[in-house]
Design goal:
This protein is α+β, with helices and mostly antiparallel strands and 589 residues long. The protein binds flavin-adenine dinucleotide. Flavin-adenine dinucleotide (FAD) binds next to strand 1, strand 3 and helix 14.
Length: 589
């Protein structure tokens, strides 16, 4: 990438992500060697009044799903029956987080995640459909809509009478979401915008009544363009469905489609959020989507655990149940540990949104990458335990495997998000180092003062091992280990920044290890927080010496081992050989 492109990219990212001074979030804190305890301890709980409401909704939902949801039929017929969609609307799922004023349930993101976990346990097509409609489809309207827009659109969307979709992806704008080509030019009187272009891979495209569409608008007085979000309805002349249901491998019940807008006249009242801030709108919406993604993956991982346990306890070979073999035990234990961590991470990430942290992009990206990768492993492990039988369609595992494969690609591919986690996380310490470098090149009295402050700040974080204040004494050793690992992580980040400087922006193998360590630090924190809360609850219930739960214990051991591996890999790796081999293969075609 040349310098001008790099500058443009950085400027775009700055504008998108760093709107102004914000409270230090947990993930960004990790990169600076801090344990920002307030965001993660104590483990968040849904307020009692809402818990009662949630329990009622979950009971109603379970009854409905038991009765009406047939994931096998949905997969075979590649369609979610209207009866199921209507029922989901009736039990409130399609507007769970919408305010009661607009007909929704007013649930928090944490409570909504419990609902999505329940659906994710059973049918990925249905959970992706709900996500496309609620978590991203109407999210922009909920977050950025004016009162008039909400009043006009929401009531029918939250009860399922109408459906929503979120349309960002195009042929040229996949991972590179900022490269949207669809245009929106204002009419001469400024009352409308004329939209032209095509979108592809859009969930619910052909069944939605309202679509949040990203298109490029001109910047008055210049030849630049920016992205703006519009509410588009399929009854607008020029809206054309090119393919209603693209045949596909998994989540076959969802309607993934392509559509074109040809000279579609959209009133300016349908602009969502500020003009030119469509990317900000899109990324904020995806933050919510990634949180419920975590919940759906948690549900599916719990199903894997249940299936794996059942089979390991009943199938006999060599006169033993499969569960007696260590290589099977290893898989069962790992699924259990990961499912526990996925739930904890989803809960804490959702609580960051509910508690009003301004910037949780790194945490939601971590949650998405971590849970989708862990779920893929869990399904693969459960599949292996079932042996040949998993391959046949009378068991759910082949469907679950097909369904889960999209998770690592959709809503930001895991590669793009991994790089994002490392780069956004390193930005804080990186800027401080830049201050020091710049001052050394051009010394001035004020500059030296600033550099001194920055240097001391860096050093302060480097010499102090952060305190991880758990309430349960029996978790002290894990808390200390976590604190030490955060300290070592910060040291490794600083070393990488000093050693590589600006080229680190393109060094994805280094970024992958830094992001991997950061994700496991976050996951471990969430597990420790949840475990701490469980021990405290047991004490409050009169159990003075609660037994140690092996599941979080195992997760922490394995997670700490992975973190040490990532950090060791920063010094000892085969990156040069790997890159040279890839280059020679790619060149030879
Ligand atoms: C079933 C389904 C439903 C979808 N629903 C929606 C929807 O409702 N709304 C919507 O807007 N979009 C939707 N999408 C689109 C989805 O978000 C995109 O597929 C995704 O963003 C990836 O874009 P792409 O497919 O063009 O892959 P590409 O951008 O071509 O990327 C291909 C691969 O290249 C690698 N890669 C790309 N960039 C980098 C990089 N910078 N560094 C390292 N590796 C990289 C990654 O491995 C990536 O998987 C859906 C897609 C599918 C398949």
């Amino acid at each position: 990438m040349n310098k001008v492109e790099r500058q443009k990219e950085i400027q775009q990212a700055e504008e998108l992500l760093f709107a102004g001074p914000q409270a230090l979030g947990f993930a960004k804190g990790l990169f600076q060697g801090h344990f920002v305890a307030d965001w993660v301890l104590p483990y968040p709980r849904i307020p009692a009044a809402q818990q009662t409401q949630l329990d009622k909704s979950l009971a109603e939902l379970r009854e409905f799903l038991d009765d009406k949801l047939d994931p096998v039929a949905i997969d075979r017929q590649a369609e979610i029956p209207r009866e199921v969609i209507d029922g989901l609307g009736r039990v409130g799922v399609l507007g769970m987080t919408a305010p009661a004023d607009y007909g929704g349930r007013g649930f928090t993101q944490m409570a909504n995640c419990k609902v999505l976990e329940e659906i994710g346990r059973r049918c990925a097509s249905t959970s992706v459909f709900v996500n496309a409609h609620h978590s991203i489809g109407i999210r922009a309207l909920l977050l950025f809509g004016t009162h008039e827009q909400k009043q006009k659109w929401l009531p029918k969307l939250v009860n399922g009478e109408q459906l929503g979709a979120f349309a960002l992806t195009e042929r040229e704008a996949g991972s590179d979401a900022a490269n949207v080509q669809m245009t929106a030019r204002p009419t001469e009187d400024g009352s409308h915008f004329i939209l032209n272009g095509e979108k592809r891979y859009i969930t619910n495209a052909a069944i939605a009544h309202v679509l949040t569409v990203m298109a490029r608008t001109p910047v008055p007085g210049s030849n630049k363009t920016v992205i703006t979000a519009f509410l588009v309805t399929p009854d607008m002349p020029g809206f054309e469905i090119l393919e209603a249901r693209m045949p596909k491998m998994g989540i076959r019940g969802t309607a993934t489609g392509r559509f074109a807008l040809r000279e579609v006249k959209v009133p300016k009242e349908n602009i969502l959020g500020p003009m030119g801030k469509g990317l900000k709108v899109a990324l904020t919406v995806l933050d919510f989507g990634r949180t419920t993604f975590g919940a759906c993956c948690t549900g599916a991982a719990k199903t894997c655990l249940q299936l794996a346990t059942e089979h390991a306890n009943t199938r006999k070979q060599f006169n033993k149940t499969l569960g007696e073999f260590h290589l099977v035990k290893k898989k069962v234990a790992r699924i259990a540990a990961d499912a526990y961590a996925m739930e904890a991470m989803t809960t804490i990430t959702a609580s960051l949104i509910d508690r009003g942290l301004e910037d949780y992009m790194v945490e939601t990206a971590m949650l998405k990458v971590f849970t989708t990768e862990r779920l893929w492993e869990a399904i693969n492990d459960a599949f292996q335990i079932y042996g040949g039988s998993a391959y046949f369609v009378d068991l759910p595992l082949e469907r679950m495997l097909r369904d889960a494969r999209i998770n690592q690609i959709g809503e930001g591919s895991n590669e793009v998000l991994t790089s994002f986690i490392a780069l956004v996380g390193m930005r804080g310490p990186g800027m401080e180092f830049k201050e020091i470098y710049d001052t050394m090149l051009k010394p001035s009295r004020a500059g030296i003062g600033r550099a001194w402050t920055a240097g001391m700040h860096r050093l302060g974080a480097t010499v102090r091992i952060p305190d991880v204040p758990v309430a349960s004494a029996e978790l002290g050793s894990f808390a200390n280990q976590l604190g030490r690992l955060i300290w070592r992580f910060n040291l490794a980040v600083n070393r990488a920044l000093i050693a590589y400087r600006e080229p680190i922006l393109d060094m994805q193998l280094v970024q992958e290890r830094i992001a991997g360590a950061a994700m496991d630090l976050f996951a471990s924190t969430c597990v420790l927080s949840r475990w701490d809360a469980e021990l405290q609850l047991a004490r409050r219930n009169g159990d003075s010496r609660p037994s140690i739960n092996g599941v979080p214990d195992l997760f922490l051991r394995q997670s700490f081992r992975r973190i040490r591996g990532f950090l060791a890999g920063l010094k000892n790796n085969d990156d040069k050989a790997l890159l040279a081999t890839a280059d020679s293969i790619l060149k030879s075609g």
